[in-house]
Amino acid sequence: MGIETFLDISCENEGCTAIVKLDLLVNHLIDCEYSPKKLVQCENGCGMMILKNISCENEGCTAIVKLDLLVNHLIDCEYSPKKLVQCENGCGMMILKSDNNNNINHNCVHVLRSELDVVKNEVQKYKHDVDFYKNEVRTLQEFIRIIRTNNPTISCFLERVENDEILRWSSSLQLARVTHWGGMISTPDILLQDAIKQSLLESGCPNDITNELMENAHERHWPEGLSTLETRHLNRRHYESYVCRRIVGQQAVVVLSCDNRHMNEIMLVEPGIVMIFSHGVK
């Protein structure tokens, strides 16, 4: 037996820290738990010998894992071409890493257009739902109007409910400032009135209140202090005291009684006044 037999040799398998005699090295390499070529019996009874430790097949990955952990490793492996990553071009979509690296099978413009189409369809559906519920509310309001006409007791109760409803609606409108009161249109034509009415309904104004307000959009239904050009001129100094709310999308405001209890009675009418202007509403 030569002296080489007694030399201490480090195991060459990565991760193994064993130091063995030269004459035992072959046996150690066969049995070494860190050997990438260690064979084990197939657990499925196929009779074949399979590798116990497997190198990851993904390009760039140096991991060597147990066979029973290989599937999980391949799923989580940072080098997997099937791993989802965020598009590097800025569209924000999650795509396969292989597609991102090779710039194939992914078109940012096409994807974003598809996303936009989905959003448009959803918005259209919501608009349809809103229109449906608005019609339901209007039907209910008309039903309530008929009931209150025929029953004074219910009418008093519903009047309180209506006032609460007006307050809730008015609180959703922005306060407005009129910079040019001289631009007031005291006798609006039918087309202009229809446009204002539609805006009121779209803002959530109850149907019956909308009808009453539109009645008060013409000077013939305005209060005493606004009924003629002469009285409007005399009372112009009081205009700045009005609390006005903007009618969305129109050069018009609504002056509600519930907002203007501080005003003189000759400047108000229930449930409020619609004032339309040629310009000057902010």
From TrEMBL:
Gene3D superfamilies cross-referenced by the UniProt entry: Zinc/RING finger domain, C3HC4 (zinc finger) (3.30.40.10)
Gene Ontology MF terms: ubiquitin protein ligase activity
SUPFAM superfamilies: NRDP1 C-terminal domain-like (SSF160088), TRAF domain-like (SSF49599)
Pfam families (UniProt xref): USP8_interact
GO biological process: protein ubiquitination
Domain E3 ubiquitin-protein ligase NRDP1, chain residue ranges per copy: 108-281
KW Coiled coil (keyword) present: yes
Keyword set, alphabetical order: Coiled coil
Signal peptide, first to last residue: none
InterPro entries in the record: NRDP1, NRDP1_C, Znf_RING/FYVE/PHD
Coiled coil regions in record: 109-136
UniProt-recorded name of the protein: E3 ubiquitin-protein ligase NRDP1 domain-containing protein
Organism per entry: Adineta steineri
